[in-house]
Amino acid sequence: MTALLDRPVPAAAADPVARPATRAVFLAALACYLLLGAVLVFGYDSVMEDALARVSAAATVTAAADPKLAAVGFVWTPLPALLMVPFAPLRAVWPGLVSTGFLAVLVSAPAITGVVATVHGIAHDLRVRRSARTVLTVGTAAAPLLVVYATNGMTEALLLLFLLLTVRRLLRWTAGPGRHTDLVAAGLFLGLGYLARYEAVVAAAAATVLVAVVTLRRTRHRRWAAVRADVLLVGGPAVVAFVLWAGLSWLTVGSPFEQFTSAYGNAALTAGGARAPGGLADVGVQLWALAPLGPVVAVAAAVVALRRRDPAVAVPVAVLGSVLAFEWVLRAAGELFGFLRYQIAVLPLVTVLLALLLARGATRPGRLRAAEACLLAVAVLGTSAWGSAALILTDPVRATQEYHRIAPVVAALTGGPPVAGDANGMWAQDREIARRIDALHLPDGSVLADSGAAFAVLAASAHPSTFLVTSDDGFDAALADPAGHGIRYVLRNDSGGVDAVRTRYPDPVGWTRVGSWPGATTASYAWSLWKVG
């Protein structure tokens, strides 16, 4: 591999981001992501459901009939919403920050910028030639799927950041006798990764096994004591995060694993939703589009690793590959939708494997020159960018979420025909509902709504405390007897999603329908507003 892989990384050499020119590149990438995100959100009303829902949850913590930290919910991981909580009150001076969901972009854009910086740092650590390192960095920054997830506020951005930070630290640890500070950092990143997305628990398990094996092989004295210490350092934080989050959920809502037991969780959604056809065959098509030369890079990296007996290649495979494998298993079992974003980890996986191939000394002296290294990097990342863009812009089945938001924008900019199933603008009527209810000037807690479905209405409302929502104390009692608990109006989701109000009152008796909205797009919810009594 490289001289780097035979000794610890010097601290001064390990932080290329400190260089002014390099820092300027990443600031430019961040500015581009934020600008693109602003164009999509404010220009085309393009925001993903999950992103807007998390923004709404973050705002509910401080602006609700019953404000509390538990309003972030326990179905999904807490970190994305918690990062937004301090900024949600800015809706008082900039309502669009919350109502449009742009606050989520202020999390995802820096996260993907961090991914780009970490790829650059890994290539620097491995002493990849500057020209090839530039190609790797720029190729990562411009990868179409990463650009999409930098600008749409989804949590995949945070997951990739924490996984790549883990990869970098474990690569440093495998490079020499093993510094415990690197294991500590890797463990903390894995713990934070679990609080960002649940898939990180698989990466934590795989990383722990890898560390145990490497420590066992290179330790001669007190081997099992060393293994226990290293395993505790790298796996302990993820275990603590897992237990802490499950315990808080149990104490607050009575269930440690709401993502499995709740009607709003993934298990209930996949059981009640129409899953995309194709199974693992579709996964294969998605992977082929995202990384056409990925298999070639993986085989070449494995050959080099076996020849040199170097565990470095196992690091990205364990951390990033385990997440991919886990999602493939869930897809095969029918427990996961066929969304393209579930394959996003293949992009940094192939990039890190490529960086390992391009490291100084990975091949025989003179075998791979600077120009050849650049050409290889351009070929791998260029075909990946082309395949990714083609899938996003042409395939509404295998890239359904991305296609229905990006293809309409491209069509509008290029003068192309309208795209069927355009999901942009799907929250327009939710904002209209919020304005209608705000105009009634109702007291706090007098409009009953399920925030699992009405999150866009809550985000758009200038007076969110008017609503009594799922996370508020007293919601269940008010749902059972609205009139007896001061409820004047009930907002019911008439189609799509889970809605406790619709379940409890499929055909209201004694109420007056005062408003009805069919939905702004085919992807939107239909709503009705009822006056109680």
Model description:
The chain is mostly helical and 533 residues long. Helix content is 60%, strand content 4%. The chain is built from 23 helices and five strands. The chain has helices spanning 20-44, 49-60, 79-84, 96-99, 102-125, 130-141, 144-151, 156-175, 180-196, 200-218, 223-253, 258-261, 266-272, 280-290, 294-308, 314-332, 346-358, 370-394, 400-414, 428-438, 451-460, 475-480, 500-504, and strands spanning 447-448, 467-468, 489-495, 512-517, 526-531. It has a five-stranded mixed β-sheet with strand order 2-1-3-5-4. A hairpin with an 8-residue loop joins β4 and β5. α9 (180-196) runs antiparallel to α10 and α10 (200-218) packs antiparallel against α16. The N and C termini lie far apart (76 Å). The model is unreliable at 1-14 (pLDDT under 50).
Radius of gyration: 25 Å
Average pLDDT metric: 91
**Poorly predicted regions:** 1-14
Order of helices and strands: HHHHHHHHHHHHHHHHHHHHEHEHEHEE
How far apart, in Å, are the first and last alpha carbons?
76 Å
Q: Based on helices, strands and strand pairing, what is the structural class?
A: mainly alpha
Q: How many H/I helical runs?
A: 23
Strand segment tally: 5
Largest sheet, order of strands side by side? 2-1-3-5-4
Largest sheet: 5 strands, mixed
The 3D shape can be described as globular
